[in-house]
Specification:
The complex is a heterotrimer. Chain A is built from three helices and no strands. Chain A is flat, with a radius of gyration of 25 Å. Chain A is mostly helical. Chain C contains six helices and no strands. In chain C, helix 1 packs antiparallel against helix 2 and helix 2 runs antiparallel to helix 3. In chain C, 30% of the residues are buried. Classes of the chains: A mainly alpha, B mainly alpha, C mainly alpha. The interface between A and C is large, with 49 and 49 residues.
């Protein structure tokens, strides 16, 4: 636990600063709201259509593939740490693991799931 | 570890390699070929793997991947090999049933067969796993592949709904299972079945720990979801109805077989003796009993009221889970012959259910929809498609448990073993369920042969294909052979159970 | 109360509040963000237990990956902010009853049980041990995992494929 104490402190400070600035902004800032003031001024333009647009489903595929390969990478870390102690058996185990997923990547690529259009 | 030591796993390896080949074939073959040979490649893969298992069937038990204390994480014994055969036959027949249906439904994908093979490979890990961590990875491999298979008919709202329901319920089951695993690990300190057996054996204080029992209960809930036992059966009818019909057949038989066979191993090896009434584990048998009674009654009662054949088959498969639970109850009380009965039952169930769904896949109308699956929509089919209808009659008779079919002997073996274990009441419930079953199964025959054909008659557009004929033939031969000469298989089952030690 | 325990309760509260909020919230966007708090709290508890590798994995995969996917799904769906009931088919009361019952049972047995104690290696060693176990004892599940990931990959591609074959 102790080795993460610094991390915890960092977390608290970061949250503290962000929270503090936000609170200060709302508490101290002048508040005189009317519709005219809520419009963007010199920083953009008035929205012409609803801002909440549907995002293309293509993002979703990419995100899914990202997570799957993310999972693969997660397994690479513990392997990399003990790589030298494991010898050839560990090496070939990892080669088998990755080659299955590389074949998967080839499949995804040729299937066109990575093409944007 | 030498390569030779891995030979017992070769069948699963063959399936994975062929699955990969199928994926590559799918993306590298040119369009003009229409990727026609995917199904053949898959069938070839299953055939090779089956041949390998057949040659290894008499091999001694192989313990693979020894961990600390010399405990194997995978045990390929005769039991596992028999289960391998069951699962791969299910996969093979499902592959044969698919091309005609896929052409009819407008999707033909090489990935379909690849996913099928990956899921069977996962099931093979499940049935041979000796520790629950390994088992879990196999379980998830199977589940993820089957979720994707359910969702294949993407343009079909019902298929999407089925996939979503199946996925959510499956994820729920996984969560229960995993939580149970964590609790068991917390009390036993290991996920290995041998350690679990030590903890469960008489005299240890661990047996009195409520946490261990809650953990095991959660694991059992996970299994109950997978085999669609009451009260965790709600997903079954919708998922079975919406999934592509050959996938439904595969889901109904292979997933269930894998789950039941591994539950059998868990009970025989992991619960070692703790279930017998002397050691305070009696509540477990009571629980299994309750599970089987309620599953039989609810499955049969709901199957009675269905208007769609697919839904009827779905609920009746719930009831079949209940019959298998009768056998598991007997196994839990130390009646080893019930284990062989369960294996036989699952073999017969595999053949007849896949066959029934195969005929439905053949007769299914292009537009699909729930209307097309009503009993009435099949009026007079018996005379328009005599061969398919005759096969359907055979499968349905077997499902109803009438002689001279595999279904009859399956029930006979399971029920008689339960009688030997002293579960007369349970067997009576089972017989009652079977009688109800005869009624709704015969409705199918009535619909096929004895209904007046309305004018103009509904015409399911049959898509004949050589593969489908071959697949149905295999299923029919299995049903008949199991019904006429049940001896060899039940002997094999006994040897399998004996190998569990 | 020692500081260490205080930290634990802080993060445990974060998990409980986040999870409960995600389950109860009527607004799916809020639910997703509350889930973020729960998942992050779990990662912090892992770190608190000196399970550094699991903590990092939890952050990378769940907080960084899965949750982003959730938010994508929320943004992909048209007018999802208008969606209110999570599931009107089952009443809230039976659900709450079942959950509370389950909680009662689990809480009771967790307190009653003498948990198995393991010697926790001093900080920073877990990745090493995990690597050893993963590639020796558990090398088979490890290899099967690649098939599992592949099946998920194929499933994702098949379900999102562009061409829509006409019957």
């Amino acid at each position: 636990m102790h080795s993460y104490g610094t991390l915890l402190i960092l977390l608290i400070i970061a949250l503290g600063i962000a929270g503090l600035l936000h609170t200060l902004g709302t508490v101290l800032g002048p508040k005189a709201r009317n519709p005219l003031k809520d419009q963007p001024f010199e920083c953009g333009q008035i929205a012409k259509r609803p801002l909440r647009q549907r995002i293309s489903v293509k993002f979703y595929v990419v995100a899914l593939l990202f997570i799957l390969f993310d999972m693969e990478v997660v397994f690479l870390y513990p392997w990399a740490v003990v790589f030298k102690d494991l010898g050839w058996l560990g090496f070939w185990s990892m080669i088998t693991f990755t080659s299955v997923l590389v074949l998967g990547l080839v499949y995804v690529w040729k299937k066109g799931a990575l093409d944007w259009e | 570890m030498s390569v030779n030591e891995l030979l017992p796993l070769l069948p699963a390896g063959v399936l994975v390699v062929f699955g990969l080949l199928l994926l590559l074939y799918e993306v590298f073959s040119n369009q003009s070929e229409q990727r026609r040979y995917s199904a053949h490649l898959a069938v070839l893969g299953f055939a090779i793997a089956l041949t390998v298992v057949a040659f290894q069937l008499r091999d001694p038990t192989a313990s693979l991947f020894l961990g600390p204390g010399g405990l194997a994480s995978l045990v390929v014994d005769a039991f596992a090999r028999v289960a391998f055969i069951l699962l791969m036959v299910a996969g093979l027949v499902a592959c044969l049933l698919s091309p005609g249906y896929a052409k009819n439904a407008g999707h033909s994908l090489g990935e379909y067969y690849g996913l099928l093979m990956f899921s069977v490979a996962g099931m093979m890990i499940m049935v041979s796993a000796a520790d629950l961590a390994t088992f879990f990875v196999g379980l998830e491999t199977m589940s993820v592949a089957v979720y994707a298979l359910t969702a294949l008919r993407r343009r079909d709202v019902r298929s999407t709904e089925a996939a979503l329901k199946y996925f959510l319920m499956g994820a729920f089951a996984t969560a229960f299972f995993l939580f149970g695993l964590a609790l068991v690990f917390g009390t036993v300190g290991s996920l290995h079945l041998t350690h679990l057996a030590e903890a469960m054996s008489t005299g240890t204080t661990l047996l009195r720990e409520p946490l261990l029992h809650v953990g095991l209960l959660l694991i059992l809930v996970g299994f109950a979801f997978k085999v669609a036992a009451f009260p965790f059966h709600m997903w079954a009818p919708d998922a079975y109805e919406g999934a592509p019909t050959p996938v439904t057949g595969f889901m109904a038989v292979a997933v269930k077989t894998a789950a039941f066979v591994s539950l059998l191993r868990l009970i025989v090896v992991g619960f070692d003796g703790a279930m017998s009434s002397q050691t305070g584990g009696a509540s477990w048998t009571v629980l299994l009993e309750a599970l089987s009674i309620s599953t039989i009654l609810v499955g049969n009662a709901l199957a009675l009221t269905q208007r769609s054949i697919k839904r009827m088959l779905a609920y009746s498969s719930v009831a079949h889970s209940g019959y298998v639970f009768i056998g598991l109850t007997a196994v839990a009380e130390g009646e080893a012959s019930a284990g062989a009965g369960i294996l036989f039952y699952l073999a017969a169930y595999t053949a007849m259910t896949l066959g029934a769904f195969g005929v439905l896949a053949y007769l299914e109308r292009r537009e699909g929809g729930s209307e097309a699956e009503r009993f009435g929509a099949y009026a007079g089919i018996g005379f328009r498609h005599p061969a398919a209808s005759a096969l359907m009659a055979l499968f349905v008779v077997s499902l109803a448990g009438l002689p001279p079919t595999g279904g009859f002997f399956g029930k006979l073996f399971v029920f008689s073993a339960a009688l030997r274990a002293g579960h007369t009441g349970l067997v009576l419930i089972g017989v009652l369920g079977s009688v109800i079953g005869v009624y709704y199964y015969l409705r199918v025959i009535v619909a096929f042969y004895m209904r007046d054909v309305p004018e103009p008659g509904p015409t399911p557009s049959a898509t004949p294909s050589a593969e489908l004929g071959f697949g149905l033939l295999i299923a029919a031969i299995l049903v008949v052979v199991l019904g006429v000469v049940p001896g060899p298989l039940i002997e094999l089952g006994r040897a399998a159970i004996a190998s569990l030690g | 109360m020692p500081l260490s325990d205080l930290v634990f309760y802080l993060f445990a509260a974060m998990v409980v509040v986040g999870a409960a909020g995600a389950a109860i919230s009527q607004n799916l966007v809020y639910a997703a963000f509350l889930l973020l708090a729960a998942l992050f709290g779990v990662a912090a508890i892992f770190a608190w237990l000196s399970a550094d590798y699991v903590a990092i994995t939890q952050t990378i995969v769940y907080v960084g990956g899965i949750l982003v996917l959730f938010l994508f799904a929320v943004m992909l769906t048209n007018r999802i902010t208008d969606a209110r009931h999570s599931n009107p088919a089952v009443g809230k009361r039976p659900a709450a009853l079942v959950s509370l019952g389950l909680f009662g049972v689990l809480a009771y047995v967790s307190i009653e049980t003498p948990w198995k104690h393991f010697d926790v290696p001093a900080g920073g060693e877990t990745t090493h041990l995990l690597g050893q176990a993963l590639l020796s004892t558990y090398v088979l599940p490890f290899e099967v995992l690649s098939v599992l990931l592949l099946a998920a990959l194929v499933g994702a591609v098949v379900m999102s494929r562009k061409e829509t074959p006409k019957p």
